[in-house]
């Protein structure tokens, strides 16, 4: 697995491959979300999390090109997958905060 990819295992056993969004992909997400969605910070953050999934159970996931593909991606990830993504992101935030506190001291 590439260094910048992380395997997330859901409670149900489903495996997700997570990779941070690139700047060009972020522009694509803004276009997919449209003028209303891209103004909503919460919505765009959630979409960004979903689009960070590159494979589900070792099957590559195409980057969404429109709202319908985004809906299909969200359904394929599922509630258990979304929880796994959130848990991973929360754990990385805690690690970053610990690193900052270590540097301060």
UniProtKB/TrEMBL annotation:
Taxonomic superkingdom: Bacteria
Protein name: Uncharacterized protein
């Amino acid at each position: 697995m590439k260094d910048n990819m992380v395997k997330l295992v859901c409670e149900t056993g489903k495996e997700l491959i997570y990779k941070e969004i690139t700047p060009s992909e972020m522009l694509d997400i803004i276009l997919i979300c449209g003028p209303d969605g891209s103004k909503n910070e919460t919505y765009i953050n959630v979409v960004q999390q979903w689009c960070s999934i590159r494979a589900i159970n070792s099957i590559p996931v195409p980057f969404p090109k429109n709202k319908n593909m985004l809906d299909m991606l969200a359904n394929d990830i599922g509630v258990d997958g979304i929880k796994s993504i959130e848990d991973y992101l929360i754990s990385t935030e805690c690690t970053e905060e610990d690193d900052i506190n270590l540097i301060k001291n």
